[in-house]
Design goal:
The complex is a heterooctamer, with two copies of chain A, two copies of chain B, two copies of chain C and two copies of chain D.
Chain A (H helix, E strand, L loop, with lengths): L5 E7 L18 H15 L5 E5 L7 H4 L3 E4 L5 H11 L4 E7 L2 H5 L1 H9 L5 E6 L29 H4 L5 H6 L4 E8 L3 H19 L4 E7 L3 H4 L3 H15 L3 E5 L5
Parallel strand pairs in A: 2-3, 2-4, 4-5, 5-7, 6-7
Antiparallel strand pairs in A: 6-8
Helix pairs in contact in A: 1-8
Chain B lengths: L3 E5 H11 L4 E4 L6 H10 L6 E4 L3 H13 L4 E5 L1 H6 L1 H10 L3 E7 L16 H5 L10 E3 L4 H18 L2 E7 H5 L1 E5 L25 E2 L15 H18 L3 E4 L6 E4 L2 H16 L4 E6 L1 E3 L3 H11 L2 E4 L6 H9 L5 E4 L15 H11 L1
Parallel strand pairs in B: 2-3, 2-4, 4-5, 5-7, 6-7, 11-12, 11-14, 14-15
Antiparallel strand pairs in B: 1-8, 6-13, 10-12
Chain C lengths: L3 E5 L9 H5 L5 E2 L14 E2 L10 H5 L5 E8 L1
Antiparallel strand pairs in C: 1-4, 2-3
Classes of the chains: A alpha/beta, B alpha/beta, C alpha+beta, D alpha/beta.
The complex binds thiamine diphosphate (2 copies), iron/sulfur cluster (6 copies) and magnesium ion (MG) (2 copies).
């Protein structure tokens, strides 16, 4: 057998649209996995030449440098406004935003909701890691009740800080939205489901139907104070209990 | 001669922008400039452009930023409180050196102010950079609808030429007064391609617009903070050397120099006429660019006259730049908003009041 | 016959351990006492025989530190 | 009424929102543009939609016009006593320059001008307008009166301009009534007896 | 009969908590009716001594001057943030905001939604007149499709400007909200229903249950270009078709 | 002597506020000052106060405004981009004359800047009023944790005394460097009752906080725009006369005056020591209040020395106020951020570099 | 016997006509040709006999221009 | 190592986030506070949570400390070759003042100091730490080595301070290991042979 010519075929490695440079996330952060997913989606959909990304401020701030596509960065929370203008000026392009749960859910909530209200045709990748990673682990609107963060040192108390934002469900209530789903990449099967959802969210834009939105639950070992492996379990047990996965809206025409 | 129309300063803003090729406008209503957005909402859809009513001035400036990065000629307009809300965005625009035009039709006072009435109390916030990071914007202050029409076109040119935000500063009076305006297209010469614009990489390498990302152009923040600022300083220096604009009126033989900009310069001009009629050799110095400030020409004119009277409809902001220029070498007097004929929002510093002050000083 | 192999780039790996978790065939282990030159615990590809080159470890590596190769006969 | 040999006219109009102060001001200015090289129209109105202070200045001149704001106007049309914040009548009564002209809608303003160095005309414009069928045309009556008194712009030029500006408008059906009001205003002034 | 002593009993007039000063709304504007309603509610609930109002910017900007209660004004859209601080500092008081559909629905949407997310115990009176009154009749997020405004001169086109905001329904989806209703005052019967709803929205705050929200459809003859009487009909025919009346949430405890 | 603790400038902000009676804090995370909010989130609930994490700096400033109107001692803190977002709110606060304290722990650069690193590029936005309406805020610039602790207490006092927003301006260096701090309570004397505060009318007549509403206090905007501004100008004048603070070091016999504030003043002080060791008579002038600016004392010191070297970690903002003060009567040199030892965010203008410049000038 | 009366304050009324619409008993009319001294059409209380002092016209007047009185015997 | 007759110590520590650079810097400063009237601790770290540049300065002095930032420190501990953006080793190798001290974690940093006007100590701290059971205590080993070399603060004072600061912490179980690492570092330095 050994004599037979054996060739190596690459099954997996750095995705083609991921620039060659080290990542700058913490060990075990799922952002890297989501970047792979996005690269694959863009690649497989054949839209790399006319896609434009806009990253919010947060641990995803460096995404513009890491993708081999046109990719801008935005002031904290303002990606939907910037994306709006770009899409209006280049309507033939595919425009998406990448935003953390602080970026979209707190400072940028008004900006984002108004983009939905205006009926923009955009796609948003929403990174829900239940906290502010970049600035050192403060509470985000998505922080679970009882969870300790640097600004909820005694655990998040809904009496004084409210309940978690359920973005995917909220988005689904808006008329101009064509697609809204919540996904994770914390298992290979979920990775594949998330990939399909992401393609759908782009397709709704490309087909001119409406807004496409995908919320990713994403492990943040640093803020959660857990190991990367414990974080998988945390998603499974705690995050999924608060944030159920699923498609909350998927329509092919609006009105 | 091009067609002449009877329009006010607000309409002159909108028409000037369209005349010079602006097809995308982002704005939020606020008195006394909502008419600019309204004009755009009627006209832009007809020429294949887009008018987007933003949800607030913050959104306007971030849309403007996005539009500028997309490589289009873009404009927004607002009035004072709205301009305050734009400061973070202007700072980002300045860091990214994204060319765009911002119009501020000032109204009086801090806070809600006096309900969209006359005032010139945005001088500092507009000229000193109200946002973080020690940037500069070009500031042009027209004093008639015609000049507004022309300067808006120039603002677009300067924005593209220097990759900078160019602000056109008018106010209630200039915005709403109507005069005949000649619809002339100003030609300023060729401009560089915007190869840095985000529009889909289209076969080329992906462009990254990120301060810490791959360098996109000279002076990109990613090259390091000193390189970045030296590039900016050099650019600001070039602007200061080439783009200073001002106007003088009977200043050559003046023994009293009145300094005023925008709407106040109109009243001041009347006052100078009145003073001349009385045999007082008053003259007028009117900065057209508030940044770069015509520091040297003003100093020369002030030294020649020996005495300066600043007129501004504010508690005294522009006067600081005049004092800075004059360096304590001749006396500088201020007639501020206390020169108004009444306390209400509609109060005005009339030429008669300025004349009084001129008489007092001679 | 081995069906494939994986290559772990020590310089990219940050020792998160996800590859070990997700290899359903148990081909990867992370002995916590071994540290890479960057100071991170390092995974080891211990069971090449069982690897079916499914690629999962590669997908799930947040650092793109794993390349997975399938052996194909020519 | 012109200053020196060059032609020069100033008019201020003051009232409350809804009375058409700005409509006739702008109309006069646009008509003036057919005749004068320099024309200026400067409105002042509040932020609230209806019922607030409303005022404008029109200047027609052979020479350059420096200040858009006139403290002591040649002529004023006063359409209200006062607004919530501003004592309109009092203020304008005082401001018109000596020798100038004050035209008052005497159906609305009960006060009388206390000065005797100005020409004052009390025109019951709103009353007459109501008789014409709409109290909304009082403003045209007052403009007609001013045109007659000042001769700043010939009435036909104003009528022509009005026709042009109303051509595309939803209100163009009102054109005959507006023209009628202008003429009646001019007549009232022509026949005015202190 | 004539000899009998007849006394006059005042049935109706300027409400006690309405200061003696002229209103500054346009003829036929319903804001005046809603002011009466609020005065009556505060009076009847006996809370005038410890209620604090915060008005947004819009045609309701003058409300602070017209009520004989502590009443502040806010920067455009920011009443919920100001109210938050005041309520936290004076937790025993009743704090409410009055906001137009531009104020709350556009510039202030993020500020408002975040107050809901933080679980504030406040009450909001939302004035939906389908446009921007104060600034001269521009489109608001609530403007009806097809409606002409000064910034939608060809009629609001959902393709480029989206669909109307349904605030009361949106608010009802938020967990920390105890009460949400939509009302009108365009008939006496509706006036009474609206009054009951408003009391309920205050009661939820007073009882510490959660946020209380009442949306009022309000005639704006000026922006709509209709007479006051035609405006009543417009509410009946057009506004109610887009914005159904009703209670969308009414709970006595949250979690 | 009060207890001494080893804390950094950020903790000194939080502790100083609590020490002087602040129980309500509103803030949003941003590097390098999130530690202030984090400290407050731990401590305030324990003393019956409230820490509210706002959703953005805009919300922080409006909460601060609300809190100030409610009559409480309130504070927020942020860093540069966050301060830009507060400009509208600060303008409203200034119009309402609502007393409060704002802390800006500066970071470098416009836009996203250099990721929360050292810089002094907010001078203009903080001192010139970045919002609309020509208002003023008191600006205090400490140069150590102890001074931070003390000046925060003073800021609360001044805010209440003058009904004004008082800003404490620190930066990355002052915020993060730790030194022993004595936890002393500063006493400044009695303050007036806040009868204007909104807290429910409680049997009295309703208080209306509206610019065009019933007059609440002298200088209320409702009294008319001139009265309002004359009141403000008078207040600003009183502050300028009584509250100017500055520090000098070996300035009396200096033949070269180094002018610097905040963190740069620390490096400058080392450089002055080095220069003295070399026999160069350098001295230091350090403004503590950036507004009111110590214009007259600086002019005197500059004239006495004959030469000024400004050191600031910026492309040149503070230098403008120095030039204004000096009126061209002695030369003013600038060592700006190009004096840093490297291009990165962590670049610093070291004392050695300042010394070099001092040597060049002597 | 008349059961009550209403008083319309001309100075406050802005002629919107809502009172006339909402009086179920038709007691109020607005003759469009009559204008108040403020320039607004003015409502007239034409049918006192039918007025039952229900107060509705008062509630619904946005300007609080109407006071409604009920006659009660002492 | 003190300057002139008054006591004066400067130390800079540089590495990447997660190595405990700031922990030992702050510990040294707090211990120093028990002895010196003037103490300064100045950390520099980026905005990202883990793995970025991390650096701090500690100054202990009898005299007032003007500048918190030291360009040419007396002593430096270097715990990494370089970060993504910054050539840490290169930079600090050059910056230490002539006659000063450089202590290097030689398990991590492969480079050698090229200057001969400084005292250089290559301590295989991470390696030794791993042997001790946790590569996380390399920082304490290096601090122990510095204390031995400089005599800036007696080891027992540092240990006592460590005990105090860890008292309330979740990590207080690590105290014995940390102390052990300090002592081992001191020993390695005491027995150091070029
Ligand atoms: C105006 C402004 N305020 C605050 C910040 C500081 N900041 C940077 S990232 C961030 C939040 C990040 O949280 P999130 O969006 O959840 O992203 P993550 O880091 O969790 O990915 C904040 C508050 C900023 N950059 N700009
Ligand atoms: C920051 C800012 N932007 C814009 C304005 C101008 N403005 C005043 S009211 C208003 C909108 C009012 O609309 P809405 O909230 O619907 O109230 P309405 O007038 O319809 O009652 C706007 C845009 C402002 N005052 N402040
Ligand atoms: S802080 Fe959290 S989200 Fe940010 S890089 Fe680290 S693990 Fe990822
Ligand atoms: S998943 Fe990647 S980074 Fe994590 S341990 Fe495996 S190879 Fe290393
Ligand atoms: S390729 Fe599949 S089988 Fe092979 S090591 Fe990776 S996960 Fe395991
Ligand atoms: S514009 Fe509309 S909302 Fe405003 S006062 Fe007039 S009718 Fe009322
Ligand atoms: S009180 Fe009732 S019945 Fe009498 S007029 Fe008014 S609405 Fe009509
Ligand atoms: S409802 Fe009031 S304002 Fe309207 S017409 Fe009747 S009395 Fe006048
Ligand atoms: Mg997050
Ligand atoms: Mg509205």
């Amino acid at each position: 057998m050994k004599e037979k010519a054996i060739a190596k075929e690459k099954v997996c490695g750095r995705p083609r649209l991921r620039n060659l440079m080290p990542g700058i996330t913490c060990p075990g952060c799922h952002y890297g996995i989501i970047i792979r997913l996005l690269c694959e989606v863009i690649d497989e959909m054949g839209i790399e030449d006319n896609i434009i990304g806009l990253a919010g401020v947060g641990c995803s701030y460096a995404w513009p440098m890491t993708f081999d596509i046109d990719f801008g960065s935005c002031p904290h929370g303002r990606a939907p406004a910037m994306a709006t203008a770009i899409k209006r000026i280049h309507p033939e392009s595919v425009v998406f935003t990448v935003q953390g749960d602080g970026d979209l859910g707190a400072i940028g909530l008004g900006c984002f909701m108004n983009a939905l209200l205006r009926g923009e045709k955009l796609t948003t990748i929403f990174l829900n890691n239940a906290g502010y990673g970049m600035t050192g682990g403060q509470m985000a609107p998505t922080t679970l009740p009882g969870m300790r963060t640097t600004t909820t040192p005694y655990g998040r108390d809904p009496k004084t800080t409210g309940y978690p934002l359920h973005a995917a469900e909220l988005v689904a209530t808006m008329k101009s939205v064509a697609y809204s789903a919540r996904c994770t990449v914390h298992t290979p099967a979920n990775y594949q489901r998330a990939k399909r959802a992401t393609k759908m969210a782009f397709k709704k834009q490309i087909d001119g139907i409406g807004y496409g939105f995908v919320e990713f639950l994403s492990a943040c070992p640093s803020v959660w104070g857990l190991s990367p492996v414990e974080s998988l379990q945390f998603i499974e047990e705690k995050m999924l209990a608060e944030f159920p996965l699923g498609e909350f809206k998927n329509v092919d025409s609006i009105d | 001669m091009a067609e002449k129309v009877f329009i006010d300063g607000n309409e002159a803003v909108a028409r000037g922008a369209i005349q010079t090729g602006c097809k995308h406008f982002f704005g939020y209503p606020i008195t006394p400039q909502s008419e600019i957005a309204e004009y755009m909402s009627r006209e832009l859809p007809q020429i294949g452009g887009a008018f987007v009513q933003s949800e607030c001035e913050g959104a306007s400036i971030y849309m403007l930023y996005g539009g500028a990065l997309a490589g289009a000629k873009v404009m927004t307009s607002t009035s004072s409180p709205g301009f305050s809300l734009m400061q973070e965005g202007i700072s980002y625009i300045s860091a990214a050196q994204a060319p765009c035009v911002i119009v501020n039709v000032m109204r009086m006072g801090p806070g809600i102010g006096t309900g969209g009435q006359q005032g010139q109390t945005d001088y500092r916030q507009v000229t000193k950079g109200g946002g973080h990071g020690a940037y500069r914007c070009i500031v042009l202050a027209p004093s008639s609808p015609q000049e507004t029409f022309d300067l808006v076109q120039r603002a677009f040119y300067l924005a593209d030429k220097y990759r900078i935000a160019a602000i056109v500063l008018t106010d209630f009076i200039i915005g709403r007064m109507a005069e005949p305006v000649e619809l002339r297209t100003l030609e300023f010469g060729p401009l560089p391609e915007k190869e840095w614009a985000l529009k889909g990489k289209g076969g080329k390498g992906g462009r990254c617009d990120h301060p810490a990302g791959a360098p996109r152009f000279p002076g990109d923040l990613s090259k390091g903070i000193i390189t970045f600022y030296m590039h900016l300083l050099d650019k600001y220096q070039r602007i200061a050397e080439s783009e200073v604009r001002y106007d003088t009126y009977l200043a050559d033989d003046a023994t009293l120099l009145v300094a005023a900009y925008g709407s106040s310069a109109r009243m001041a001009r009347s006052a100078v006429n009145m003073a001349r009629a009385e045999g007082i050799n008053a003259g007028l110095f009117r900065p057209i660019t508030l940044w770069p400030f015509p520091e040297e020409p003003l100093r020369q004119a002030a030294l020649a006259a020996g005495k300066v009277l600043v007129v501004e409809d504010s508690p005294g902001e522009f006067v600081e730049d005049v004092r800075f220029a004059v360096q304590g070498r001749v006396p500088v007097h201020l007639l501020g908003l206390w020169g108004r004929h009444n306390e209400r929002g509609g109060g005005i510093i009339y030429p008669e009041r300025i004349l009084e002050e001129i008489e007092k000083l001679t | 016959m081995d069906r494939g192999e994986i290559v772990i780039q020590e310089g990219l790996c940050r020792g998160c351990g996800l590859c070990a978790v997700f290899c359903a065939r148990g081909c990867i282990v992370i002995p916590q006492d071994k540290v890479s030159f960057k100071g991170y615990p390092i995974p080891i590809f211990v069971e090449q025989e069982r690897c079916n080159a499914c690629g999962v470890c590669g997908w799930m590596c947040p650092e793109y530190a794993i390349e997975v190769y399938k052996y194909v006969e020519r | 009424m012109g200053k020196e040999e060059t032609r020069y006219f100033e008019l201020m109009i003051a009232g409350i929102g809804g009375q058409g102060v700005l409509t006739i001001g702008r109309l006069l200015a646009e008509a003036g543009m057919k005749i004068y090289p320099n024309v200026l129209y400067f409105p002042v109105y509040g932020a609230a939609m209806r019922g607030g202070e409303s005022e404008c200045t029109v200047i027609l001149s052979d020479e350059e016009i420096p200040s858009p704001a006139i403290h002591r106007p040649q002529a004023a049309i006063i359409m209200t006593e006062a607004t919530f914040l501003a004592p309109i009548f009092k203020e304008f009564e005082g401001r018109v320059e000596p020798g100038g002209t004050i035209i008052i809608d005497s159906s609305i303003v009960q006060n009388k001008v206390q000065r005797d160095d100005v020409k004052t005309f009390y025109i019951p414009a709103s009353g007459v307008a109501q008789e014409l069928g709409s109290h909304q045309v009082a403003n045209f009556i007052l403009l007609g009166a001013y045109l007659e008194a000042s001769k700043a712009v010939p009435l036909p030029v104003v009528e022509k301009t009005l026709g042009e500006t109303m051509a595309g408008s939803r209100r163009k059906g009102l054109l005959p009534l507006n023209k009628k009001a202008l003429r009646i205003g001019a007549e009232l002034m022509a026949n005015y007896k202190g």
